[in-house]
Structure formats: C-alpha cells, structure tokens
Amino acid sequence: YVAVCEQLNRLTPVAGEKRSALFNSGSEAVENAIKIARSYTHKPAVVAFDHAYHGRTNLTMALTAKVMPYKHGFGPFAPEIYRAPLSYPFRDAEFGKEMATDGELAAKRAINVIDKQIGADNLAAVIIEPIQGEGGFIVPADGFLPALLEWCRANDVVFIADEVQTGFARTGAMFACEHEGIDPDLIVTAKGIADGLPLSAVTGRAEIMDSPHVSGLGGTYGGNPLSCASALATIETIEADGLVARAQQIEHIMKDRLGRLQAEDDRIGDVRGRGAMIAMELVKPGTTDPDADLTKALCAGAHAAGVIVLSCGTYCNVLRFLPPLAITDELLIEGLDVLELILRDL
Description:
Layout: H1 2-11, E1 18-23, H2 26-41, E2 45-49, H3 58-63, E3 81-84, H4 89-92, H5 97-101, H6 103-117, E4 123-128, H7 144-154, E5 158-162, H8 177-180, E6 186-189, E7 200-205, H9 206-209, H10 225-240, H11 243-264, E8 268-274, E9 277-282, H12 292-304, E10 310-312, E11 318-321, H13 329-345
Parallel strand pairs: 2-3, 2-4, 4-5, 5-6
Antiparallel strand pairs: 1-7, 6-7, 8-9, 9-11, 10-11
C-alpha cells in the first residue's frame, strides 16, 4: 500500500507535498475526492460538466450527465450537484469559430454559469475529466482547463481531475493533465492503475488530503495486497516498456488513417483524441446532426468481423478506440482495414 502511494506521489502532476489514499473503484475514489474537498473547504456544492461520466454509485450518478443507461430509474440522487458547459470544439463550432478554438472563452462561459447559479462561496469543488470518456472522448480547446484551474485557485475551490480513464499513459502522457501543463489539487485514478485488478486512488496536495478527520476515509478492501502488487508491476512495465511513447505512436497511426478516411467520407464529422484514446464522431452527410444508427451498425459490423469497438457520446454517435498500449502496428492496421471496409459497405 505504502509503495503504491509513493509511486503515485512521484508520478502525478500535483504540485508540492502530496498524499495518496487507495480505494476499490473509480466511483469510490470520486466520492472520496468529493468528501475530501468538502472537508477542506467547508462548502457543500460541486460542479460537474455537460457530457461528464464519473461513475454509477449514487453520488457519481448525480455527477454523470447522461441519463441512459446510467441514471434512468435510479433516483433520487445526491443533492448540491450542478452542471456547467464544457468546451466541446466540434459542437461549439455551431456558436462560431472563436468559441470552438478559444478555450479561455469557453471557460468564461462555464464560469459565468457557475457564478450565477451556485456562487464560489458555496462551491467546494469542480470535477472534470481532462479528456471526457463516456461523453465522447471530447478534448477541450487549448486554454480551457488552465483558465478553469486559475479561477478555482482564486476562489478557494478544489480542482479535481478525474483521470480514471485518461491516466497511466493512455493519452500519450502519464496523465492527461500534463498535456495542458496543469497541476490539479486532487487527481482520481483507477482502471489502468492495476491492469484490471480492483484498485483506485485519490492523490492530492497534502494540506487538502490531511483535512478529513482520522478514520473519515477508508474501506474494508481498499488497497488490498494483490491489487497493490499488480499496480507496482503495471507502473514498472509502463516505464520499462516505454508505453507513454507507444501511445503517441498509436495516435500518429490512427489519426493519419482516420483523417484520410474523413477527407473521403462526409459521414465522419470529427476525428479527435490523444494517444491511444481516439474517437470518430459520425454524422448525417453534409450536416453535424448525430448519426446514432450508423454508429450502431458500424459497431455491429465490426464485431461480426472480429474487431471489438465501442460507441459512446451523449448522442450515441461516437466510435471510440482504446487499443492496448502493447498492440503491434500490424494488428492495429488490420483492425483499421476491417473498419474501413465495413464503413464503405454501409
């Protein structure tokens, strides 16, 4: 347990002295990050963003934006949860080029909503995925995350980065926050941390992590020995095998191939993502209208041909690619070949 926490404190882009605590799942870690933020600030409210996904427990369902299949029929949800607009460049283009490309402008839009609807004096934390996962692999415009962090620091609001899906080399950096050069107050990790065994963590600034009372955080199975051993081996492998650089190579191969496909097919509205976390947003020809039916058909066709892909997004029209960081070029290209053939057949 201690060794895993030491590695997390070494790796995570949180400034200054750090602390880490281990839990079981991403949802559980998110809930504990909220508890820590509320204990530190003595304020109740939390802001999440449009298209967000943070988990399936009661509090994290409240943070999650999408109703189906995550929230429908499961309420009522935890109170004092609010939502602000995210920077979504492909969709923000409908409001003009400036909104789509200027992250600081998009952040002002979000902050305006927060100021009017909640007020900084009531706000304990802002929680955000640096690149949204279930919401559609949305990469905010440059400057959005730093502007949001600056506002949080100026207003005694804890900035929580949910890196459950983006952490541990997935995006071509050890953590997605590093692409924007930001240092969150708290970082939540899970999924890749132990390569499939149940483990999650909250890592953050020591003064914030130390704020809950003794025994305020915990759990029977949190940081169990087998998962900790797996986490240590996983981190060692990521570094020894150069998997951060490998994720960057995967991004180059995928974006080059999907970009050429997009140039030939106006049903592909957007290709985006970082590292080995790439998405293709499908639309009706000549429009930006989401095409969920095409996405479903493409997934089904790929599965039938032996290529496993997943869809995501608020409008169910995003094909997401999360190839293993250890995949070979040959296998990756073969999968893309199959995908292109099916798309042409459709």
